[in-house]
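REQUEST ID: PR-0412
SUBMITTED BY: lab tech R.K.
PRIORITY: routine
TASK: structure prediction, single protein chain
INPUT:
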Amino acid sequence: MATACNKVTRRVLRLAKLLLVGLLLGSGLARAEVRFDVFMGFANKARSNEWFPATFEIENDGPTFDGVIEIKPDFSDSQTIRYTVELPTNTRKRLTIPVFNHSGYQWRVRLYNDGELVREHNNLRLDNVNSYISLLGSVSEQQASGPVFPRTSFKNDHQRKSYAPRVAHLQSDIFPDNPVSLHGMTALYLNSARAINLRAEQADAISVWVRGGGHLILGVDQPSDVTGTPWLAVLANAQFGQVQNLTVNESIHNWLSGAGYTLKKDDGVFSAGDIAAAPLRMKGGKP
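STATUS: complete
OUTPUT:
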């Protein structure tokens, strides 16, 4: 009798352990059903009183649902943005929501399913840049490098931080796909080797932004990148000659100084060197 009771007790304990493991695994799977990543601004930078992108990557491994994304400043309810997105099972979506920056530097972002909170990100901080400061977006060939501004001759660090132009290094895979959000940049530097791999929505956003007055600086890695990519060829509207090395010397330095941009004389990056260049002729026009 005692032996039978011991066997029953052991079976009950085994079953309890299995149920406990199942519950733990189940809760872990439930937590892993939805991944909700958010990228605010141009590499966390945004100009005051200008548009900036809130880019999302959402992966849903659970049941299909219609999600609602909510974006709001951390200390105010006056600017609340809600956006509905369909999230089928086993899918990953990337999307950009344009946000106007007039509320502050700290934001809250939440994802709801039928009114219930699914995921949230709090205390998302932006590096606020005054609207009169130039903000250059950069999609470079090498993510760790890219365009730089020459060193300026401000009197102190406070003036440099207050007035010096900024560069935001952007990743091509999460580059905004909404043209409105691009209006917060003064200009965009785009390397052609990266441009040819942009998604159609991203290319359309850049094209619409440029036609609406946006300034695109196209760094041509190979002329074939432009001529072989229809949307770039339409924007460039040009014919390329043979690539050759040209000596820069003081040309760029003198050009910038002549435009009223105060530079330090010892800035070697802009004082000498050779660059690969190709003559460019506008179609139907002059070089």
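NOTES: Residues 18-32 have pLDDT under 50 and may be disordered.
REVIEWED BY: pending
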